[in-house]
Amino acid sequence: MNTVRGARERARIEVTAAIKDEARRRLAADGAAKLSLRAVARDLGMVSSALYRYFPSRDELLTALIVDAYDSVGAAAEEADARALAAGNPPRARWIALCEAVRTWALEHPHEYALIYGSPVPGYSAPLDTVGPASRVGNAMIAIVRAAYEGHGLSLPPLPAALRPEAVRMTADFAEGLPPEVTAALVAAWAQLVGLVSFELFGQFNRVVEDRATFFAHAAGQLAHGVGLPAV
Amino acid sequence: MNTVRGARERARIEVTAAIKDEARRRLAADGAAKLSLRAVARDLGMVSSALYRYFPSRDELLTALIVDAYDSVGAAAEEADARALAAGNPPRARWIALCEAVRTWALEHPHEYALIYGSPVPGYSAPLDTVGPASRVGNAMIAIVRAAYEGHGLSLPPLPAALRPEAVRMTADFAEGLPPEVTAALVAAWAQLVGLVSFELFGQFNRVVEDRATFFAHAAGQLAHGVGLPAV
DNA sequence: TGTACATCAGTGAACGCGCGTTCACTGATGTAC
DNA sequence: TGTACATCAGTGAACGCGCGTTCACTGATGTAC
Q1: Cα dihedral sign for A21, A26, A31, A33?
Q2: Positions in chain A short of pLDDT 50
């Protein structure tokens, strides 16, 4: 009985996955703004109205892709960090491994990267379901820096007075226990990391940076420095 | 005669500008991927085929908007720097003024910002005409750092050996005379600046950073530090 | 085990809509003599 | 200055296309007794 009902459920899971896979493929061709249920259905050999059995609207499908993308890059970051940790690497090396993992994931999934870190899709507004998955990379960064802080401590210059209240609030909200100047530096580093990856992926480095892997590795090291994880 | 021919030419210039203005308005509503000649024409009270007197295709109109956007943010950056220079400010203050100008421009023109620094428009590939305008902000940054270098010099840690050749090449290509470690730091800072602005504009700071102006000011100072313009 | 019924995936037609681009045209503006 | 002609902006119809979503339907799968 369970296995029988399971058959229908399993079919449902498989078709849902096939739709999302095909939608990811269409993303590459047309971009998120033009993602079309009809095109997805066509390439899947289904009739467009059939997709409504799986997603109540085009926007819900987009949301599913966004959640998947955040989870995918989040998992990549977490796994890279876990490997670095298991190899006995110090926090700085874990940080750099995480940055490299984000870049590698982005190069392998450029359109999913654009979906979550590129321009917002006009007319689409992300529901709250995306908030959790969206913070996985950031949380992994916090964990690394926290480990460093609880180990040998971190020394960063003091915050300007104007930023202190905001940094204290951010710390209480999502990085409890860290010094506020570390929290502020972390958030900035996170945005800067995505800036570096976006420039490479979105073509701003064309005719500017050629050896991008080497350049990125160096920049990731600078970011580590910025959050208080110096080279030596 | 000149004035008579000028009348037709002036009309042409005015209508061209009106089309671009309307297109910028549509950009806000629909985004670049869905920018539609017919919608622009409709809102302008023209018939869609009339636009072909001014732009040979939708993509050419997009290109014009992109070039305008790069010129607009480039001019904003240059002017902010010029004002800071005229006020007798040192390079670090000029740098921060430039960063603030980019952010302010982005907040005032979010859809044009997304057009140039957001995800690329699928199916559209920017022609070479955009390369020059695209480098104005970067060139302004180079000028500031060059002034500092030629004044008191800059001290940055030496480059890792692996990055040296690339940094030397970049320097020869567009920042002649600067030490290669400065060039590399500049390019990274440029990408990081855009990362900070994109995060704010694209919603990644929702539920994370609230006092964004203060946060950005601090981050711009950190970027200045990163290119060898320390606080004291 | 067998049967009656409920659930659900997928179909195909239809709704009303918008798109980029082409083309032959009208009529106003500008030019040459 | 006046006239014949060329240039050009803008029109309106048409081309072939794609879209999201709804709805009544068929037929297979699962459930309860």
Answers
A1: negative
A2: 1-4
